[in-house]
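Project outcomes to date are best conveyed with an example. Our students and postdoctoral researchers have been running inverse folding experiments weekly, and each run begins with a structure described purely in tokens. The record below, which covers 357 residues, was selected by the lab manager from last quarter's runs and is presented without edits.
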């Protein structure tokens, strides 16, 4: 099952480089496997070497922790455009909430598929370090002189464990924008409930059309449901659509399709109400009316297996179209750290662990 994940965004191109991606598991398990992606590549990618180690200080690794991965027994992985590759399992156990460094050597040129880490408030945590050449096997961090806020080509970490994972299908609110602590509500959910959580948020992401990544509807089938062990999806996306003039009826129809596709795959769907955003740059009276219509459907439309009423959790009782001031990071769109905590608390754990539809 999936213990960590990132949604795919198109982020430029690189050539003959090693990237040390630093991530954190949600739950532990055995037989760690790494999934790489070439989601947006126009040409094949060749990864010469991929290693997994335990981070030390900066880009350095703990002594004797860096282990090579293989792909169908070979050290090299070649991914055609749009493809993913799942490594062979590593012997041993990884722990819950364990930091791991996945060092990926790109041999030759390639399109960068990754995800921006929106917040950097976690002390001592950087998403990735880059170095020219092949340094995947290095335990020293000396070659990794460039620190970047992007995870590169890393699609998921997979372990063998009895639990099922929860995927969050969302936008920048899922990635943690606004939380000065560096932890968004999916991170808090994973830590509080000891759940495996796959964060499939994309900053600027929409439900109906592509943005920096695919549309949420497309990502459900190409990215979320293809990851091992997903038992429940929490859907919270649509504000960016409304901000660009989408109609409530179109969002509702997309929500119905998303729920149907998930149910066909045996996956439950928790519907999240769209959070208040009056005062945000793209808020309009028409968008607010559409938000209310969409939220009425999420609460009472019968398409979902449960409700996460983020709107009620975050709104100002005196002005329900707005975030409560202490839950507002300041842009009137993204929740503050306290707001992300309130969102995590709004989810019923029993709904996440139930099986079947």
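After processing, the design step wrote out the following sequence:
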């Amino acid at each position: 099952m999936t213990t960590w994940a990132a949604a795919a965004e198109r982020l430029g191109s690189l050539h003959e480089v090693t990237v040390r991606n630093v991530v954190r598991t949600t739950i532990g398990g055995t037989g760690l496997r790494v999934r790489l992606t070439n989601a947006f590549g126009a040409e094949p990618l060749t990864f010469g070497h991929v290693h997994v180690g335990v981070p030390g200080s900066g880009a350095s690794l703990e002594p004797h922790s860096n282990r090579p991965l293989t792909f169908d027994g070979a050290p090299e992985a070649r991914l055609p455009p749009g493809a993913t590759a799942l490594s062979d399992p590593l012997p041993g156990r990884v722990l819950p909430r364990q930091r791991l460094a996945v060092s990926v050597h790109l041999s030759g040129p390639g399109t960068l598929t990754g995800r921006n880490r929106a917040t950097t408030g976690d002390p001592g945590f950087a998403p990735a370090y880059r170095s020219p050449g092949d340094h995947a096997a290095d335990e020293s961090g000396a070659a990794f002189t460039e620190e970047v806020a992007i995870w590169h080509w890393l699609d998921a970490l997979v372990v063998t464990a009895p639990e099922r994972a929860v995927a969050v299908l969302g936008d920048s609110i899922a990635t943690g924008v606004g939380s000065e602590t560096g932890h968004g509500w999916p991170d808090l959910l994973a830590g509080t409930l000891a759940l495996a959580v796959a964060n499939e948020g994309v900053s600027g992401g929409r439900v109906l059309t592509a943005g920096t990544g695919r549309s949420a509807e497309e990502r459900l089938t190409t990215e979320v449901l293809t990851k091992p062990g997903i038992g429940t999806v929490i859907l919270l996306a649509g504000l960016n659509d409304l901000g660009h003039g989408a109609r409530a009826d179109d969002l509702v129809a997309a929500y119905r399709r998303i729920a149907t596709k998930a149910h066909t795959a045996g996956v439950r769907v928790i519907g999240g109400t769209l959070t208040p955003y009056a005062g945000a740059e793209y808020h309009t009276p028409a968008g607010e009316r559409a938000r209310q219509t969409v939220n009425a459907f999420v609460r009472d439309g019968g398409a979902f297996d449960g409700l996460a009423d983020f709107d009620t959790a975050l709104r100002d009782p005196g002005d329900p179209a707005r975030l409560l001031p202490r839950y507002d990071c300041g842009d009137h769109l993204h929740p503050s750290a306290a707001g992300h905590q309130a969102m995590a608390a709004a989810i019923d754990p029993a709904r996440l662990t139930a099986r079947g539809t």
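The chain has two domains: 2-158, 163-353. DSSP finds nine helices and 20 strands in the chain. The training component of this project remains on track.
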